[in-house]
Design brief:
alpha+beta; five-stranded antiparallel sheet
């Protein structure tokens, strides 16, 4: 089929789908689903991030107190008593009392008051009030156990405090306590880096979830989009196509009611409008069935030549000449849809093939129908349709000259549903040759006991 043109989807059709009320409603639904999916993901990620950050914070806090406890344990082991009293010389040379966290030793004087007897060298901060350190040491001495707490330092920031009691070597009486002061920032720097990483990762994960949710919701709503658009197209087709024949019938009835000759002279016009109305209803219903069925056609083996012959016989009588050249052909197709397609091609040829041409009588359409394999060709002697003009003519509501408006577009859809296409060429000598291809078929004669004649 050299020079034939296929029927692509036009940019106008895509723009119409984007403006479809159904798509706008479902787009809003898609956005709401995306928002709900994002909020749920955000809630889950936030809870998980909070748990990770809190767990890491507790882990670092426990590690800080463990280190402080080790320093306090080493420091208490280095304190001893002689006849000369408390000895602290071991604290000055041990690594446990250098740097941070700082170690302080409070000893109970004979009167019971606690006084600071040792402070390890190190950073001045965190600086905690002496009375708070003494109160913590007194608590550890009274409980005879290690005590941990947090307290604000001179800057208002939190400081870790740990007090561990020590005993007299001979009497085993609690005589004082080692107090270790730790700076949380020393351990929390890594925690803050982890928290920042977790929050950034949570944000990226939420954004990815939003994008994924938007994509998945769009894919899941695609069948609904197609279904609603199909319904809207059917309604639009019905409203557009029924308007003209109904108006013709109403005007004819109104005129017939006032005509003194009676309704007789107006009956042919009403009959033609009724026939056109029937064609419109059939086309609209066929389009609805085709869009609803999708790829699930009721395809059966059929004699294409016999179906086309019957469609030609059912063509209304009129000022046209119809000739046929039908080769025996078996195809697998939906009989009802193929019948509609062939009838629309015949109606189109009869309606638009009546333009006088050198080889035709004035006002008479010359239509020739051929069947070759899985292809039905309808030729006329009208003004002709160029291959480049066919895509526009197969758009809904673009059929010129008083046609149904959806005839050729419906034929194109039926061809595509069968894996074929609709093409058109200028006919040598004037006119148009339109080919409906239904895919591969058997061009030979039908076998005995083969498909039923339609």
């Amino acid at each position: 089929m050299t020079g034939a043109a296929r029927t692509p989807k036009t940019a106008r059709g895509r723009a119409g789908r984007l403006r479809s009320p159904a798509r706008r409603r479902l787009r809003r639904l898609q956005l709401r689903l995306t928002l709900a999916y994002t909020l749920i993901t955000l809630a889950g990620v936030s809870a998980l991030s909070w748990m990770v950050i809190r767990t890491d914070e507790r882990s670092w806090r426990a590690a800080a107190y463990d280190e402080m406890d080790q320093r306090a344990a080493v420091s208490t082991s280095l304190i001893y008593y002689t006849d000369d009293g408390l000895q602290l010389d071991g604290l000055y040379d041990d690594e446990a009392t250098r740097g941070a966290p700082r170690v302080r030793v409070l000893h109970a004087a004979p009167g019971g008051a606690l006084r600071l007897v040792f402070t390890s060298p190190g950073p001045a901060n965190p600086a905690v009030a002496e009375d708070r350190l003494a109160a913590l040491a007194r608590t550890a001495m009274d409980r005879d156990d290690t005590v941990r707490t947090e307290a604000p330092d001179s800057r208002g920031a939190a400081a870790y405090l740990l007090a561990r009691p020590f005993h007299h070597d001979e009497t085993q009486e609690v005589r004082g306590a080692v107090v270790v002061v730790g700076d949380p920032s020393q351990w929390m720097a890594e925690h803050r880096r982890l928290a920042a990483s977790v929050l950034v990762g949570a944000g990226l994960l939420t954004a990815l979830a939003a994008a994924t949710g938007h994509l998945l919701s769009g894919r899941s709503l695609r069948p609904a989009w197609q279904s609603l658009e199909a319904q809207e197209r059917i309604l639009a087709d019905a409203a557009h196509e029924l308007r003209t024949p109904v108006a013709v019938m109403r005007s004819s009835v109104d005129v017939a009611g006032t005509d003194p000759r009676g309704p007789g002279p107006h009956l042919p016009r009403i009959r033609r409008a009724t026939e056109r109305l029937t064609d419109v209803v059939d086309n609209v219903l066929t389009r609805g069935r085709l869009q609803a069925a999708g790829p699930d056609l009721r395809a059966v083996p059929l004699r294409l030549d016999q179906l086309v012959e019957q469609a030609c016989e059912e063509l209304a009588a009129g000022p046209h000449v119809l000739t046929t050249s039908l080769d025996a052909s078996v195809v697998t197709a939906d009989p009802a849809l193929v019948r509609i397609a062939v009838r629309n091609l015949l109606d189109n040829a009869v309606r638009h093939g009546a333009t006088p041409a050198p080889a035709s009588a004035a006002g008479r359409a010359e239509v020739h129908v051929m069947v070759r394999g899985a292809t039905v060709a309808v030729a006329d002697r009208g003004p002709g349709i160029a291959a480049a003009d066919l895509p526009a003519l197969t758009e809904r509501f673009r059929s010129p000259g008083g046609g149904t408006g959806i005839g050729l577009s419906l034929v194109s859809e039926i061809a595509a549903a069968h894996g074929g296409d609709l093409t058109a060429d200028l006919r040598p000598g004037g006119g148009t040759l339109v080919r409906l291809s239904l895919g591969p078929g058997d061009p030979g004669p039908a076998p005995a006991g083969g498909p039923t004649r339609f």
